[in-house]
Specification:
CATH class: Mainly Alpha
Strand content: under 5%
Structural class: mainly alpha
Number of strands: 2
Number of helices: 21
Oligomer: single chain
Number of domains: 1
CATH architecture: Up-down Bundle
Helix content: over 70%
CATH superfamily: Sodium/glucose cotransporter
Largest sheet: 2 strands, antiparallel
Distance between the termini: 40 Å
Length: 511
């Protein structure tokens, strides 16, 4: 262990811990209400929500896994960059409507919306269960990023000090999430994103300068990738175009429909805030491009990951930076896990409390009790994520995360379809979701969970997209049949004006 690096690392961690607990005093409100605890009262302005959403989506695992993929696979590792760009026009068009109806009707989760729109408890349960299952491995993977940092900084890979550090960090997250709700990760996100931006900007300037420039970096990396088994390249092979395109498209569509992303979007104060975020969030995509380049830099710098490519960035930083900045950058990555983990646990708690517990076990439960159950579940989810990564091999978390993206993708037809039309039949949507889930999981299982890229009729593509196509076909065909048979389609609890709802001038704003 280096004393300087450790000291800087601990000082920054303690600072964000204090900030997380202080958040409960920030714009005080009744945190015994789920809308206040889980959505910060829907008061977040453009700047705060920009930090929160960016901190939510660009996680510690992103900082570790994207460069690791570039380090091991070359050009394929850059698929995350275009998918975080193409999604924002979609968000600009779709999410203002989603926010409006949620605000107008008091919906807190996506399950609330599909139940109100289609009068279907089954659809609401499907969205809730899918969201919770998909969130669990996502939380566990944040710990993978934290483990990589701890291993490099000197705590060891697993067991002993490393495990104790992870337990302490996640217990702190659980406690300040219980105390302050969404306000805690919002405040921490400001610090986390600032640290990440500084780290990336310094890295893409200082490291290429030390290594002889980008031309030399790509030349050396190209030779090393070509010599790998199997060989790879910094230029995408035409054989991978379909895989790359469908993976980017499917990942983009799924990204904002994870429960934690919807929670962050619902917490904003207006439709206009969402539009502004859609315009300015691509700045994070610019940062992501720099993060992906770190994997290529690690190759050129001769970083030896000893079979674990997740160590590429931490080892690169340790090799290239002075120790005080190593502590700074490692703290940025480590804290980068705390924000999404907190929001994910909040989102999972809200889904369970509102759409499973209250819907099926305690219909008359008071709002205070509903919020308490959400808090308890958020702590349980955090602890389960911790146990999962400490007890179960990391590879299983990766498998489940792969399935999580495929699963979330199948809920889009219900949500986005419902935002624009009531033509789709609720039974068709539910069956289409089930078919999509089965097809997607079966395709990945058939190749032993080794990849999410599966060939169909000779064309390699993202299993989530193939499953989504099957989902849509079932929904359209069955809707035609059920509508022709005049099968009742439930009562719509929303109106046209709900989708254009604008908050009045009396709203209290934060940020």
């Amino acid at each position: 262990m280096n004393a300087t690096a450790i000291s800087i690392f601990l000082i920054l961690f303690v600072f964000v811990t204090v900030l997380g607990f202080y958040a409960s005093r920030w714009h005080k409100a009744d945190l015994s209400q789920l809308s206040e605890w889980g959505l910060a009262g829907r008061r977040l302005g453009a700047l705060l929500s920009w930090f929160l959403i960016g901190g939510d989506l660009y996680t510690a695992y992103t900082f570790i896994a994207v460069p690791a993929l570039a380090y091991g696979s070359g050009a394929l590792g850059f698929f995350a960059v275009p998918y975080t760009i193409v999604i924002y026009p979609f968000i600009f068009m779709v999410f203002p409507r989603f926010w409006s109806v949620a605000k107008s009707k008091g919906y807190i989760t996506a399950s609330d919306y599909v139940k109100g729109r289609f009068d279907s408890r089954g659809m609401a349960l499907a969205v809730a269960v899918t969201g919770i299952i998909a969130t669990m491995p996502y939380i566990a993977l944040q710990l993978v990023g934290m483990q990589a940092v701890l291993q490099t900084i000197g705590f060891g890979g697993s067991g002993g000090a490393a495990d104790i550090a992870l337990v302490v960090a996640f217990l702190v997250v659980a406690m300040y999430t219980w105390t302050a709700g969404l306000r805690a990760p919002t405040m921490v996100a400001i610090v986390k994103d600032t640290l990440i931006y500084i780290t990336v900007i310094v890295a893409v300037i200082a490291i290429p300068t030390a290594l002889g420039g980008f031309g030399h970096i790509f030349q050396v990396a190209s030779l090393k990738l070509a010599a790998a088994t199997p060989p790879h390249s910094v230029i995408l092979s035409p054989k991978l175009y379909a895989a790359y395109g469908t993976l980017a498209l499917g990942s983009a569509l799924a990204l904002f429909f994870y429960p934690h992303a919807i929670t962050a979007m619902f917490a904003t104060k207006s439709r206009q805030v969402i539009r502004r975020n859609a315009a300015f969030l691509p700045l994070y995509s610019l940062m992501l491009g720099g993060i992906a380049l770190l994997g290529i830099m690690a190759l050129a710098a001769g970083v030896n990951v000893h079979g674990d490519s997740n160590l590429a960035v931490p080892l690169l930083f340790e090799q290239q930076f002075p120790q005080w900045f190593v502590g700074f950058s490692f703290a940025a990555i480590f804290i980068g896990a705390l924000v999404p983990a907190a929001i994910m646990s909040i989102a999972a708690g809200s889904l369970f409390s509102r759409n499973i517990y209250k819907e099926y076990f305690a219909k008359g439960e008071s709002p205070k009790a509903e919020a308490t159950v959400a808090k308890i579940v958020s702590v349980c989810v955090t602890v389960l994520g911790l146990v999962f990564v400490l007890v179960i091999p990391v590879q299983y978390s990766l498998y489940l995360q792969t399935l999580g993206g495929i699963m979330i993708l199948q809920t889009i037809v219900m949500i986005v379809g419902g935002l624009y039309t009531r033509w789709f039949h609720r039974s068709a949507l539910l069956l289409g979701w089930a078919v999509g889930e089965i097809v997607g999981i079966a395709m990945v299982a058939a190749i032993g969970f080794k990849s999410s890229i599966v060939p169909l009729f000779g064309v390699p593509g993202y299993a989530g997209i193939w499953a989504l196509i099957a989902n849509l076909v079932v929904v359209v065909v069955l809707t035609l049949v059920l509508n022709a048979a005049k099968v009742p389609n439930g009562r719509d609890a929303t109106t046209a004006t709900d989708y254009a709802f604008e908050e009045g001038p009396t709203e209290v704003t934060v940020g």
